[in-house]
Amino acid sequence: MSGKKIPLFKIFGIQINLDFSWFIVFFLITFTFATGFFPYQYPGYNPILYWIVSAVAAVLLFVSVLLHELGHSLVARRFGIPVKEIDLFIFGGVAMIEEEAHSPKEEFLIAIAGPIVSIILGFFFLILALFYPKDDLINGLINYLMYANFLIGIFNLIPAFPLDGGRILRAFLWQKTGDLLKATKVASDAGKLFGIFLAILGFFYIIAGSFINGVWLILIGFFVYNAAINNFEASKFRLYLSRYKVENFMEPIKPVFHDTPVGEILSKHYPTQKTEHFVVIGKDGKFHVVDVKKLKDATFLEPVGKYAEEVKCYVSPFDNLYKAYRLMVKCNRKELPVIYKNTLLGIIRQNSFKHLLEAAK
Ligand SMILES: [Zn+2]
Fold first, then answer.
1. Which domains are seen in the chain, by residue range?
2. Burial (0-12, 13-18, 19+ Cβ within 10 Å), 2
3. What DSSP string runs through 287-342?
4. Which residues contact 226 (CB under 8 A, 6 or more apart)?
5. For residue 82, what are the CA distances in angstroms to 1, 14, 209, 227?
């Protein structure tokens, strides 16, 4: 999951990526179907045809998982929660939902959307199978997709965080107790237990002689167990930092004009402001930013505007510290200008909330 990703395409503005681990699943499904299931169930076809239909089955499974994740993503976006990417990997897919839902109801609807899409797809293939009753390879493909989608929908409803069912459980507990962190803890403990259960089940499968299924279950068990822990830690960190607003941690900063000589910045402004990034008012009156590191090779008489760039990374005073922190990581900076309605209000430095960062981890 943390391996290298291939960017595939964008849909509804969401970047779809393929993790290299997906190819393992693609190969396993294609191989099992082309050499086992299809020739056994539907004998007499050209072997190449088995391979083609099997590869199509694997790709359509990928599309089914993608549609499931899009279900989550589009509902999240409907509630104003940004989703930038969907990653598809060995155990399925994950939509990168960037913020916590605003209410238990939103959390519930975002979580249930994926399984609903899968179950609708299951019924779609069920109806398709009814309209195509011939006992051939195509029918086999349709039947497989029907079962796969029903299975994806139902498996994900198991109340084990971070599976969708676990998120639904969390939404109910959140609604009941009003404490999102506590709700997340209980739901992720259920996730850990479920992970252990799957691994034990896999162990019994191996003893019973079903080696591949057993190993697969153990791997999924480990994955769910780790995901439960990681998602809880991430939620804790996010919730903790989200309680604080940028405005309470920002410091005033004076912008400089674009024609200020570099020498004046380095000798006068830099020692007093101790900032790595100066906000520069450009010729156009707009804010730009200059990285002090870039001034190292500049001559002292050059105007600073020559080294200024467009301000891409900034926060509003009403953003929370989690958003500011995420942006700092993304922009690879330890400080960000605070801008609101084209007005520069100050600067927020990671140092000013480092105690909170440590406490949140
Ligand atoms: Zn889901």
1. 5-242 (no CATH), 246-360 (3.10.580.10)
2. exposed
3. EEEEEGGGGTTS-TTSBGGGG-EE--S-B-TTSBHHHHHHHHHHHT-SEEEEEETT
4. 195
5. 21, 9, 46, 21
Q: Are 247 and 317 in contact (CB under 8 A)?
A: yes
Residues in a beta bridge with 315:
338
79: helix, strand or coil: coil
CA of 87 to the centre of ligand 1 (A): 12
pLDDT in tens, 176-206: 998 888 899 999 999 999 999 999 999 999 9
Q: What letter would DSSP give residue 248? A: G
116 DSSP assignment: H
Token pair 């299924």 in the structure block, residue = 213
CA dist., res. 21 & res. 8, Å (int): 15
Alpha carbon of 180 to ligand 1 centroid (Å)? 20
Which tens digit of pLDDT belongs to each residue from 7-46? 888 888 888 888 888 888 888 888 888 887 777 877 777 8
Q: Are 173 and 187 in contact (CB under 8 A)?
A: yes
Q: Tell me if residue 69 is catalytic.
A: yes
Give me the amino acid identity at 165.
G
The model scores a pTM over 0.85? no
For the chain, helix, strand, coil in percent to 5 are 60, 15, 25
Residue showing tokens 């960037």: 98
* CA 322 to centroid of ligand 1, rounded, Å: 24
3-state secondary structure of 219: helix
Say which DSSP state 245 is in.
B
Amino acid identity, residue 1? M
